[in-house]
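Researcher: Here's a chain I'd like modeled. Treat it as a single chain, no partners, no ligands.
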Amino acid sequence: MKKINNPFEYKPPELPNLRFPWEEQGKQTTPREIYFFFECLIPLKTTICEIGKRMWQRGFVDGNGGNISVRVSENMVLCTPTMISKGFMKNSDLCLVDMDGIQKEGNRPATSEIMTHLAIYHNVPDACACVHAHPPHATVFSITNNQPPQYILPEVEIFLGEITVVPYHHPGSPEMAEAIGKTALLHQTMLMQNHGAITWGNHIEAAYWKMENLDAYCQMLLLAKSAGMNLTTIDEKEMEKLMEVKNRMNN
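Model: Modeled as a single isolated chain. Structure tokens:
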């Protein structure tokens, strides 16, 4: 008997794919000024500005602090400009740089820390977006050179993993870029000693979510310490279960 398809049969929903398909863009041969205004970049530019505003509203950045970038082709990266509040950016403020950090388009100079972002892209092919900020609670760990403990919260283990502190180098320097690029091979969430934090992900929202998760976790740790409470850790058997969940999510 022929099976009749039921139009009302429930189909499990799929998560939206937020990743910008930069590999499909290939190596850009079109005039860069045309590419910079391609329609495919408009939603991405809008999202970058919205995330900048979210960072500013949460107090992760002040003044002209912080920066955001997204890889948009084999040899091009969209990024925020220097000397601008991340809470009040417009699409027209964003910049286009190549993988050597040379600015190709934009009405404002690109962020002075773009080489640090590019070092991550050069070292980690899966990295498609980076966020740098100075979230207050996480930065407390940065300026005291303290690595947040592991095995405390399931969400931290799944989404952040080990949070490491990268030794201090001058912001935007080649030394800083080299240190972050190497560390990014094993870590997606990094504290920069006496500076702030940088995160990467396979799309811009993922990179930003890690920044939120990081600061919330550090806030909880500081509250527990200020209250004189001892931290309890997740036991080894339960950690194995969490790693199974993490591996399934990454497949």
